[in-house]
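Fold description:
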Amino acid sequence: MRQIILDTETTGLDWKKGNRVVEIGCVELLERRPSGNNFHYYLKPDCEFEPGAQEVTGLTLEFLADKPRFEEIVEEFLAYVDGAELIIHNAAFDMGFLQNEMALAGRGVLAERVTVTDTLLMARERFPGQRNSLDALCRRLGVDNSHRQLHGALLDAQILGDVYIALTSGQEEIGFAQVEGERGEGDAATRVFEPAILLPRPRVVATASELEAHEARLAKLRKKSGHALWDGEREASAQV
């Protein structure tokens, strides 16, 4: 199954209050590697931004004035995502907004065309009681997000791709390059379809802090039960 990392930017926090999608960014993964087949649009919302939303995204109504409306790109969007697994951080938020856009465009139910994996729920299960925002996960999992000054749908989708790989297999960055034509250049709606080049998978190596944490865990097990299962495996390995 094709996997598509998806993110949206919106004029506010609740579509039920009339807020709309202003940016969609998608990154395709084939065999868990970026193919280069990305989907990216800025959208004209036909509504005002809620207070604070512009500061988060860096977008303005002036910049979006000549961009297409969602109904103008809905067919292209559906053709891109149809049958794929969408990987979204806080999926209820993005899917709620996208389904509202689908309804306003007179289309069907998006969830009937795709499956959805929520990385926020995955992170909460793996790191209970901790902050699991995208930035927090980048720090925890060693994903470089230093170029993320503002929230942008395509950039956030690329970063989420690294986070997803780390969450599911412990792999580190999967090699997303910063996309040319980022917002603020005043160009028309950006559409990115790059050649499908599968990048090599990274080698997974435990960090010094991870090894230290592992040893601390073993020490607790030895103190509690007198030994740890790994001790026997180490002795057997040493005799080989």
In short: Residues 3-201 form a domain with the Nucleotidyltransferase; domain 5 fold (CATH 3.30.420.10).
